[in-house]
Write a structure and sequence with these properties.
Length: 147
């Protein structure tokens, strides 16, 4: 499934700290949010690969989730660290935390944005390479969404 240009634009705005990111997020319909979240997870996967490297165990993922949540609490941007961890577990193929209770799509968007924001704030290269990251994520998204 191809990625809608507005989803790429929304993530580009998030990474570049463009104020349009909030307006684009607020404009998502419920169905659009689900499609956006799928792409957001692909973007997070691309950004995480160089950051986490071989640290892909449950303990590593939980510690990284805590690190992201703590940073966001410091910034007064609350995020559910369990949803952050759930996204990371999905990316790395680990057993999920929420098997019987679906996570609200808005919570996935918030947690996914927290991951991207954290990686952007701790690595200057993320903003500089955003177009390459979005291209790679679009390719990964296409492979992930094949039936």
């Amino acid at each position: 499934m191809p990625v809608e240009p507005r989803f790429r634009d929304q993530i580009r705005c998030l990474v570049l700290k463009d104020r349009r990111a909030k307006a684009l997020n607020d404009a998502l319909s419920p169905d659009d949010r689900i499609a956006f979240n799928d792409f957001l997870v692909s973007v997070a996967a691309v950004l995480l690969a160089p950051r986490l490297g071989d640290r892909r165990g449950i303990e590593d993922i939980a510690a990284f989730s805590d690190e992201i949540a703590a940073r966001h609490r410091e910034e007064r941007r609350p995020v559910n660290e369990f949803v952050v961890e759930e996204i990371l577990r999905e990316i790395y193929g680990l057993p999920l935390l929420f098997r019987t209770f679906p996570i609200p799509p808005a919570a996935v968007s918030t947690a996914g944005a927290a991951i991207v924001r954290y990686l952007t704030n701790t690595d200057d290269g993320v903003a500089a390479g955003i177009d390459r990251t979005l291209d790679t994520a679009a390719h990964l998204h296409k492979r992930r969404s094949r039936p």
